[in-house]
Each structure stands twice: as structure tokens, then as C-alpha cells.
């Protein structure tokens, strides 16, 4: 993207499309009906497809939110089904319900793995991965960067940043640098202070600008604002204020949610950015229709209250100036008050009206739209709780969730590349910034990611039991199947224990010196005298 320079338009024109798309993703991710109405209403700037409108004609596009309500009392009766939020959570859960384990190479020292465990194999790091997974699904992707602060933690960690707060630069599809920007507090509402952190190979450039909402403004000294005054920087040869990483590597990575992104496939500046599961161009119109269907069903519920109409003869006066009412608890009415109908028969003084609630029709329409959303995002309806069938085996369950597993495996590749690079760089920077705790790393770290679809312990045990009945597998095969994560040494030990437990000491009845009754057996001389000629 465009290089940062003083007094440039802000945000940069190239980032404007990303900012608009992420803003639309945020309102669907958050699910606040008021914000949805404001975003697509007269004060908004985009249509459901993200295209800027020159005219705010409400009939220019078929949107449910943002349309002018002729009856203001009806505006609060529109309901939102948080499908976007649910899909983002499903993506994060599928990825990081069992997070990967960061491992050092086999030939590294034990102290390396110990430091890796302290920094990355922790609940805090795993929680941040889950958050990054949901953010990436909702907002097209997420940036990860290596940070440290000795006042917070004695060690480096990975911070995840939303895509609308980063300006990446690419070189032949590879990330070259990223500029992160943060708006700081200002005493004057007319002034906008921005802290820019440019991650380059081997260093981080820090800059402070004072401008306006739509202009970056002029470069200031870091000491001009309290938020940047304490940053320890040094002056580089090219005149920039930098923090030296101590390693000649780029301490940032980008994780796309899904690639390629058809919306920006032909844009050389944006083609490397991912597509959202929540606010993609083809999904937003479906969300509008789902909410329309949901609200229509609830309208049926509201208007379906039973109503009774009674003739005026059975109404009683409340008193002077207080009107009339129907005594609903009265069991017997002395006034008949019937009329003659068209067929000549007497008409009842009471008429009941009970509108129908079209639950089945609304449910079918809503399910059809939701299945289409899930198909386009790559998730199985079973993962979304839409199947009434109960899977009897883990194999059946995995088959029904095949789309979800395939999508999750694809996303895991993007996250895997970023996590491996970031943790490796973070550990090397950790050794430079915290030499009393850091360790020297010779080879990149590795990830051990658990399977995204695996059988339960009960299912495995039932399979082994079937093998045992059919005499179809050895003890070693059964142990390896039950414990796929075990080493060969662990398997050998378990096989020996099982074989020892199943060995039974059998008495030697045949060919032994003693019979079962304790008498000597066999062709032994039992000491009985036999005369010659006697029949033996």
C-alpha cells in the first residue's frame, strides 16, 4: 500500500475498502439491531453489498435493516438472528477448542522447551488464539505481532490486531512490512493524535502524528504525547526512531480467514487479504432475509392472540363517562341480543377470531436461507445443530461434519504458518531482550495440532472390543489404536503389562510326575511286586 507520509489523506485510499468492509462485518458480528439500523439507514454509507450509494433511496436495494418505517412503533419489533456471531464462534471453536502445542526440535536443549512452555503452552496464549480465531472469521483476517513490556511480563508474547488497524505492504505475495496505527487521547477534540508502529525486518519504526479525522497531519516528537513518551528508541542511520529487534527477521504475520477473496481478487493492493464468514458480499443479503423471516414469525405470534367480539347488548356500563365493558367472568347472560343472518338463522352474540401462526412455513424458509449461508461459509449444518439424526458412531459424526472439518483444516494451515513463525521469532527476540531468562534457539519451533475430527474414548473401546471378539488384531495394534499419541516405548510397556496380566499359570497334568490326585503317574516304578506268570 501507499507509503506513510505527512499530511496524507487518512485512512489511506487503499485501506478505505477494507475499512468499509470491516465496518459492515462488525455490525453483523455484534448483532445490535440499533447499530444495524443506523448502518443501513439514512445516515449510513453502504448497501448490503458494500457499494457506496450516491442516493439514499430506500427502494434502491432490498434491505430489511435501514428501511424507513412509516409507523415508528413498528421499528422496535424487528428482530435479529445472530447467525454471523454464531458462525464466527463455530470457526474459533473448531480451530482452537483443543489448541496446538508448541514444540522445540528434538536436538534442542531441555531449557528451550521449558521456555517455550512458559511463553506459549499456557492458558493465556491459548485464550488469545481463540479470540484471534473468532476475530479472523468475522473481520476477514487478523494480524499477529511480537511485543514485549518488562513492566507487564518478563518475556515476549504475541498480540493480535484487527485488519482495519493495519496497513500491510506486500512483495510478490509475501508480507514485507506492516504499519499499525492507534488513535491516542487528545485534549482538543479537533486534534487527532496517531501512534504509528511500522514493523520492518529487524526493527520497529515508531512515529507520532498530529492531524485531523481525515488527515494524518504532521510528524511530532514521541515525547509530545504521554502514551509514547516512554518508548525507548534509537536513531537509525536513515533518520527514523526505531527499536532494534536484535534479530534480522520480520516480527509480524497476517492470517487470512479464507483465500482467495473474489471481492478483491483483481486488486493488486488487496488481493492477499482474506474473506469474511460474517460480512462477505454474498452473505449480507441473506442475513437481511433471515432477519425478515424471523421478524415475520414473531409478528404472527403477536397478532395471533385470540380475540372475542360481542354484541353491544351484553356490554355493561361502568358508569357515567367511563364507557362500557364485557364481564368475561359472567356465566349467564339474560339478554339474548341475537340477530338474523343471511340464511335466516339466529346469529351468536359472540364471535371468536384466532389467527394462525405459520411456524412451519417460516421455519422452512429460515432453514433454507441458513443452509445456504453455511454452504457458502463451508460449514456443515450438523455442526450448527440443524440435524435431528443422532450419529451412532464417531465415524458417522465425522462424515456428517466433513465440510466443517475440511474448512477448519484449511484455516489451520493459515494459522499454523503464522503461529510457527511468530513463536519462533518471539523466542529469539526474547533471548535478546531478556537474556537472563531467554534461551538460544537453533531451529524453528514446531506445532503439534490435535486432529479436528477424532473418535471418542468410548467409540475406540467399542471398536477394540469388536476386534477382540473377532480375533482380528494383535495386542500391539489395539494399544496403538487406543493411544494414537503414544510413543513406541510407551506402547511396548503397555503391551508387556497386558500380556503379563493375561498370563495364567496352568498345572502340568500331562507328562508330569504327579497326578491331579497327588499319586505318582506315568511309567514310574510304583514298588508293587508282580509274580512271574501273573497277568498284568
Strands, helices and their partners?
Layout: H1 13-30, H2 33-40, H3 83-96, E1 101-103, H4 110-119, H5 123-139, E2 141-149, E3 153-161, E4 166-171, E5 174-184, E6 192-200, E7 203-212, E8 215-220, E9 234-235, E10 241-244, E11 252-256, H6 284-303, E12 307-310, E13 316-317, E14 324-325, E15 339-340, E16 346-347, E17 350-353, H7 359-377, H8 394-400, H9 402-433, E18 446-448, H10 457-470, H11 475-482, H12 488-502
Antiparallel strand pairs: 1-18, 2-3, 2-11, 4-5, 5-6, 6-7, 7-8, 7-10, 9-10, 12-17, 13-14, 15-16
Helix pairs in contact: 3-5, 6-7, 11-12
Task: Sum this structure up briefly.
The protein is α+β, with helices and mostly antiparallel strands and 536 residues long. It has helices spanning 13-30, 33-40, 83-96, 110-119, 123-139, 284-303, 359-377, 394-400, 402-433, 457-470, 475-482, 488-502; strands at 101-103, 141-149, 153-161, 166-171, 174-184, 192-200, 203-212, 215-220, 234-235, 241-244, 252-256, 307-310, 316-317, 324-325, 339-340, 346-347, 350-353, 446-448.
